[in-house]
Amino acid sequence: MTSIIDLVGNTPMAALQYINPNPNVTIFAKLEGNNPGGSVKDRAALNMIRSAIERGDINSNSKLIEATSGNTGIALAMIASMYKIPIELVMPSNSTRERTLTMEAFGAKVTLLDNIETCRDYAEEKAASGEYFLLNQFANPDNYLAHYKTTGPELWRDTDGQITHFVSSMGTTGTIMGTSMFLKEQNPDIQIVGCQPTENASIPGIRRWTVEYLPKIFDASRVDRTIDVSEEDATNTARRLAKEEGIFGGMSSGGAAWAAIKLAQELESGTIVFICCDRGDRYLSSNLFG
């Protein structure tokens, strides 16, 4: 019998047909919006909760808390509901209304604060009281190990080992860390490319962290190159993906796609895969597609 949990992962890939500038390079979008919770974060949420249960860190009598900018919260709310564990999610107040409503639909308590840094501090303080268990996606190895176990192997399998470049937005950095670990074990020559916002740009799902808030799971040696993406380029590319490729993703997906396109312009040949993190319907109340 298949449950929602069994449907996490094994997402499809689609090749860009119209906005790829180089006919000698294939650019694939890894469509993570096809996960049951609608984003790549389903993978990390499942692995963090399931691994904590297996270790005996949490059970149905526990109370979870986590700071999130959105997608991780939705994924955690869905997975926690399946394991019958209550969860409080702490999110920036400028997050789209769709996110809050989706978390609440899964039964989560949602607390809105000023920004993600404030949310992280609040969650850590409440966990320190002993009443809550903090999953802490920013420092939890189970975050990136989810991608070592699933995302990396899928990319290797579905490109028949032909992948030459992997492009991912960097937020918690779990996706790029775990996928890099696996792909480099298969072929050290595969290039791992991370995306971060340009200075002062605001792109949901991609962060340029200050030193004190840099995720503890981040290891710079696992990223071969970092490409800065502007808010305008991320927005315009997300719109182009929808209008020209039929790929409906969010702003971070647009950022990763822009970086992949920029990369393709530099190459003689290759196979690039970028992470299309979530679905565009998470952003309909914003001005992304307005």
UniProtKB/TrEMBL annotation:
<dbReference type="InterPro" id="IPR001216">
    <property type="entry name" value="P-phosphate_BS"/>
</dbReference>
<keyword id="KW-0028">Amino-acid biosynthesis</keyword>
<keyword id="KW-0808">Transferase</keyword>
<comment type="pathway">
    <text>Amino-acid biosynthesis; L-cysteine biosynthesis; L-cysteine from L-serine: step 2/2.</text>
</comment>
<protein>
    <recommendedName>
        <fullName>Cysteine synthase</fullName>
        <ecNumber>2.5.1.47</ecNumber>
    </recommendedName>
</protein>
<dbReference type="Pfam" id="PF00291">
    <property type="entry name" value="PALP"/>
</dbReference>
<dbReference type="InterPro" id="IPR005856">
    <property type="entry name" value="Cys_synth"/>
</dbReference>
<dbReference type="InterPro" id="IPR036052">
    <property type="entry name" value="TrpB-like_PALP_sf"/>
</dbReference>
<dbReference type="InterPro" id="IPR050214">
    <property type="entry name" value="Cys_Synth/Cystath_Beta-Synth"/>
</dbReference>
<dbReference type="InterPro" id="IPR001926">
    <property type="entry name" value="TrpB-like_PALP"/>
</dbReference>
<comment type="similarity">
    <text>Belongs to the cysteine synthase/cystathionine beta-synthase family.</text>
</comment>
<feature type="domain" description="Tryptophan synthase beta chain-like PALP">
    <location>
        <begin position="6"/>
        <end position="278"/>
    </location>
</feature>
<keyword id="KW-0198">Cysteine biosynthesis</keyword>
<keyword id="KW-0663">Pyridoxal phosphate</keyword>
<dbReference type="GO" id="GO:0004124">
    <property type="term" value="F:cysteine synthase activity"/>
</dbReference>
<dbReference type="InterPro" id="IPR005858">
    <property type="entry name" value="CysM"/>
</dbReference>
